Amino acid sequence: MAEKLKAMRGTHDILPEEAALWRRVESAFVEVATRYGYDEIRVPVFEATELFERGTGFSTDVVQKEMYTFLDKKGRRLSLRPEATPSVVRAYLEHGLARKMPIAKFFYLGPMFRYDKPGAGRYRQFHQIGIELLGTASPVADAEVILLLWQFLKAIGLTKLGVRINTLGCRPCRIRYSGVLKDFLKDKLGALCSDCRERFARNPLRVLDCKNPACRAILAKAPEVREILCEECVRHFESVQACLAEAGIVYAVDPRLVRGLDYYTRTVFEVFHADVGAENAVGGGGRYDHLVEEMGGPATPAVGFSAGLERLVDAVKAEGSMRGENSGIEVYVASFGEKALRPAFRLAAELRARHRVWLQYDQRKIDRQLGTASKLGARYTVIIGDDEAARGVVRIKDMVSGEQVEMEMGAVAAWLKEKIGGQRVE
Ligand code: HAM
């Protein structure tokens, strides 16, 4: 027997029962993003590898270790997108959107790909929702982006949430802080884990969010970024916090929060959920004031976030805060006898202009068809046998009361409209 084919490790199917919940979570996001003035952007799933090397950052784990990179038939280096932010910036520049709109607001949703070690809440193909706001350096924008994420998480009923924020400072502050950290760490390298020794060379800030207890103990005494921030960065961070307080968002300042991507400056943040296990960041983001410029555009400050749908759906299930149900069918068209098939087919087509209709394809005993109709949750079953077909009539069974009525085939649509209602869609 042929070997069974399975979904690849780190990928998963979202079956119809669960997809209904996904759709509800996604619609809540679209609804909230729209209220904040965001419009949807759809960018390709693969791009030139160079986009992520320059955008996400050459020294990040995502680019160094986690990208699905391949050569196409013409030998071009392509990668499946590990995140959407660089693609959104590329599209913004490629289509001259900076000239068309001084402030651009995009939302997106879709699959992302990272060759990470799969585990609870960690997949190789996962799905993100996200927003990018380009064209403003205002701290109000940072707070508003966090508020949008917060309001969306509330809209899907989540309560066990925590918000952490930090600032990495502007570029000169960030560079200064990297230097200060390096000085602090250089005579402690032997005691750090091998990952941190590598980070020390590539991106010393990343040492700060190491989970290893030995590294954590050393870092407890590390200088904090706020000790070296310039005045403007201090003011910016204070304004963000004042706005968050204004909006009633409870947050914690976490000086160890540095995020895994290279482009951040100033505000960074993450939102956690208590019930989604070790990988409990449901979303994260921050300000990236130099990315547009680094990708060849005019100096354009920006801020955004992304959130992982798998983790959000897990959180919703853990809190039981939302249920997704497929809408089910309204009318089951049952036929028996060769002559009934075509009128049944025609009638189902007519009824589908307004209702959700299931047409029985095969010849089956009427009892079995009625059994299927109730399993599918049909409100009415339209029954057409050879005899009815010859007389131009049907029987309609009310699946709740069990009552049956007979009527002309031409009267069925109007009768069901009266009973069920519904919008007509041609
Ligand atoms: P990120 O923190 O790399 O940020 O990812 C955002 C969210 O995606 C995470 O908080 C997590 O919920 C989810 N996620 C990441 N990797 C995985 C995985 N392997 N499996 C399941 N879920 C995952 C970004 O991607 C940035 N683009 C955010 C951003 C937008 N910053 C500015 N604008």
Distinct ligand kinds? histidyl-adenosine monophosphate
Alpha-beta content class: alpha+beta
Number of helices: 16
Rounded to an integer, what's the Rg over CA atoms? 28 Å
Beta content: 15-25%
CATH topology of the largest domain: BirA Bifunctional Protein, domain 2
Biggest sheet: strands, sense, closure? 8 strands, mixed
CATH class division of the largest domain: Alpha Beta
- Mean pLDDT across residues: 94
CATH level-four homologous superfamily name of the largest domain: Bira Bifunctional Protein, Domain 2
Silhouette: elongated
What CATH architecture label of the largest domain applies? 2-Layer Sandwich
Q: How helical, in percent, are the residues?
A: 25-40%
Number of strands: 16
Q: Strand arrangement, largest sheet?
A: 1-5-6-11-10-9-7-8
Amino- and carboxy-terminal Cα gap: 46 Å
Query: Which regions have little confidence, pLDDT < 50, spanning 5+ residues?
Result: none
Please give the domain count: 2
Summarize the structure in short.
The protein is α+β, with helices and mostly antiparallel strands. It contains 16 helices and 16 strands.
Spell out the blueprint of helices and strands.
Elements: H1 16-35, E1 39-40, E2 46-48, H2 49-57, H3 61-65, E3 69-71, E4 77-80, H4 85-94, H5 97-100, E5 104-113, E6 125-134, H6 139-155, E7 161-167, H7 171-185, H8 194-202, H9 213-219, H10 231-246, E8 251-253, E9 267-273, E10 281-287, H11 291-294, E11 302-308, H12 309-319, E12 331-336, H13 338-351, E13 357-359, H14 366-375, E14 380-385, H15 386-391, E15 393-398, E16 404-408, H16 412-420
Parallel strand pairs: 1-5, 7-8, 12-13, 12-14
Antiparallel strand pairs: 2-4, 3-4, 5-6, 6-11, 7-9, 9-10, 10-11, 14-15, 15-16
Bound molecules: histidyl-adenosine monophosphate.
